[in-house]
Amino acid sequence: MKLQIQGVGKEFAVRGADRPFTALDDVNLDVRAGEFLTLVGPSGCGKSTLLDLLAGLAVPSRGSILLDGTLVEGPGLDRGVVFQQYALFPWRTALSNVEFGLEAKAVPKRERAERARTYLELVGLSGFEERYPHELSGGMRQRVAIARSLAFDPDVLLMDEPFAALDAQTRESLQEELLRIWQRTGKTVVFITHGIDEAVYLGQRVAVMTSRPGRIKRVLDIDFDSREGDLRADARFGEYRHEVWTLLRDEVAAASEVVPVG
Amino acid sequence: MASVSVTTSQVLAREALQEASRTAGTAPGLLTRLLRGTARAAVAVGRRTAAIVALAAIWEVLPRLDVVDPTFLPPLSQVLVAWWDLLLSGELLDHTQASLVRSLAGCALAIVAAIPLGLLIGWYRPVADFLNPLLELFRNTAALAILPVFVLILGLGETSKVSIILYACAWPILLNTIAAVRGVDPLLVKSARSMGLRPFRLFQKVILPAAVPTIFTGIRLAGAYSILVLVAAEMVGAKAGLGYLINYAQFNFRVPEMYAGILTISVLGLLLNLLLVRLERRFSTWRVSR
Ligand SMILES: Nc1ncnc2c1ncn2[C@@H]1O[C@H](COP(=O)(O)OP(=O)(O)OP(=O)(O)O)[C@@H](O)[C@H]1O
Ligand SMILES: [Mg+2]
User: Fold this and answer.
1) Which UniProt keywords apply (chain A) (predicted)?
2) Which of A211, A259, B167, B219 is most exposed, with the fewest beta carbons within 10 Å of its own?
């Protein structure tokens, strides 16, 4: 097991209320080494909160999170986070953004630039090294963010709705690229999404969360005979999709909030 | 017959004109484009300076027509002559230099003192919360109101003059620096933290670069203040400086020289601001079109 989430709960103190707000309640989930796991759930169920806990950016109120069997006590370069809003440093060029994690890892200067270049190439951005984030499109920015997280070579990639802000075409091409990179690098990926299609298309397993307070409702195995060709046209794709949709429907009704489908 | 030939030539002329305009319309020659570009630039410059030219004209004409008393407001040409004489005598240069040294010294000291202080206050939230009421109080106390206090404590010499400029310049820098640190996008901090950055590196690699443009806005404001306060500071007990020149000229009823001093200080302020705006832009190129 790469990641073990054991009985994890998270509460937030709410201003003006005497009782804390429970965002996560008794979450149990194991993530295998090298696995691509997608996490879906109604808006506000605590997906981002869970990701923060995995990243070590916040501390669980209850339970424990183990990475390779050791307790997660803070952030570290063994995990890379990709945020929905890219979170690139606007005063740094694409190349220099990718170098950021390498600086944190104290990689020698010459090697830094070389490695950053390699990873920008991996995400299809060679030739854009000297561009600033504001000179890149949304899709390109997210590619830089992915390259930045890959460059310092973390074992686990934690992604919080990374493609949500992109148009359908860009999203699909980035999904394919992510799968290609994942297959090539063998990293463990935890990928949060609103999209049922995206969850089924990307995940080897799809974890469905309940509405507030968040718990893991079911974990579905997605088994395609092969990942070649157009998965979305596969009959099994529709079945999986429907299954996730049915699981989510009740939760969305409970949360009385809308989850966009697709 | 004559009338016929006239109409024919008119028709021919009209056709030639149409032909010319057609060729110009489809493929404007280099020369026409060049002319048009120059004309447009001239219009742009004209539009920008029109108000100033108008003011200069009014300044010249009204005193000459005795609409205003030329003893108190001499025509611009007389002021410019006085300015030229001051320049030739070397007096103007001395005063300008004295003023600039004070302004720059006060401003530089303010930068050196206020930026680290602002970074500290902005970074440690409890410090900011503790000091905030005090900052609000002092910020709303005009520097000139405190000038007598400075003179009382520090005397009439350079120290009190530089100090008052320092004081006036420190506020915009301090407040902008605090705001800059506190205004850093929390997502960027989170992103850097996720890569294991400890507080000191975080400050150095994220907070500081993110804050630079806003800090520079503070420096630009301080530059303007340093000139504004200068005149007042130099009106008490100075022996040189543009403020002294203005005050001295007024006292001795050398009215054109007084206006020459005022003009010089305006232009000085304008140039300093221009320089700082340039500098500010250079330091925040990444902030454009966001
Ligand atoms: N710092 C915080 N303080 C108080 N409440 C918080 C905090 N962070 C999150 N919450 C609450 O916890 C709940 C879960 O938030 P979270 O951001 O994890 O949801 P999410 O599943 O990621 O939603 P979405 O799909 O819309 O991104 C929400 O109700 C939110 O209001
Ligand atoms: Mg979220």
Assistant:
1) ATP-binding, Nucleotide-binding, Transport
2) A259
